[in-house]
Amino acid sequence: MTATPIKTRARRKAGHRTWAPRNGRVAGTHRGDIISKQTRSRVMARIKGKNTSPEKIIFAELGRRQIYFAKHAKELPGRPDIVFRRAKLAVFIDGDFWHGWRFPLWKHKLSEKWQEKIETTRRRDQRNFRKLRRMGWVVLRIWEHQVEHDPANCVDRIVDSRDSLVISS
To answer: What is the pTM for the complete model shown?
Structure first.
């Protein structure tokens, strides 16, 4: 499918260029992969599942405050990123894309394969949340954009949750 530039007077003045496919489909409604399978495989293999940038920011801030915690508890459903065992608090620091923050608003821009992949992740997150709750754990989810915007506030939320659970138990 080839695309042709469409320019309107207002967009031309602003210096914007938009692209619309020649087959009449609305631009931006579906995105296929634009790189080879081998390149995509290589790129995807480099994406880490733990010790991501947002996690490192939170770990560092907790360390600065001398707050001790366990990382990536293998024995708990979903392997929470941060665990306070005494308080039974499990914290997940989730990437906006991979875990589908506000997914219904932008899922139409993805191919069916990617939509299914993110939907599967969201279902797994819900399943792990329910399992942890049944085990008596409190689950706190922090999103990547929250860490980027205000990491200190994210750590405050974690500490406040932990402190309220330790006091109440």
So the answer is: 0.72
